[in-house]
Write a structure and sequence with these properties.
mainly alpha, disordered C terminus, single chain, elongated
């Protein structure tokens, strides 16, 4: 079956964002991936809600198997700073409106991502 429910599909690569520029809709938009049991996030997103939506395509009502999420992070890069920024953004959103989790980056956010601005610094 095209949806992999017959066991014919062992790996499905789905980008979090459409297009080469990273702009546009999620590659998983509209997909029900209940037949999947493992999600591997290859890079952190500046839009945490997009990651949550992608994981939600696997962990759905009717999912029969236990699920696992694996997040790959390059430690000697900007990626740990992005994860730290995501955690701050999610915490801020839980205290205010949910839409603020995907608000645009401000200068303090940008500095945090680059390792400054009072956040954790990336190793040189």
């Amino acid at each position: 079956a095209a949806d992999g429910s017959d066991g014919s599909c062992h790996v499905l690569l789905v980008p979090l964002f459409g297009g080469a520029s990273g702009a546009g809709a999620s590659g998983a938009a509209g997909l029900n991936l209940q037949v999947a049991s493992v999600a591997v996030l290859l890079e952190p997103s500046l839009q945490p809600a997009i990651e949550q939506q992608a994981l939600g395509r696997i962990v759905r009502i009717g999912q029969q198997r236990s699920t696992t999420c694996i997040r790959l992070v390059v430690t000697e890069s900007i990626e740990p700073n992005i994860l730290h920024w995501q955690q701050r953004r999610i915490a801020q959103a839980s205290q205010s409106s949910a839409s603020s989790v995907n608000a645009q980056l401000g200068m303090s956010d940008f500095l945090l991502l680059l390792g400054g601005g009072g956040g954790r610094r990336a190793r040189s």
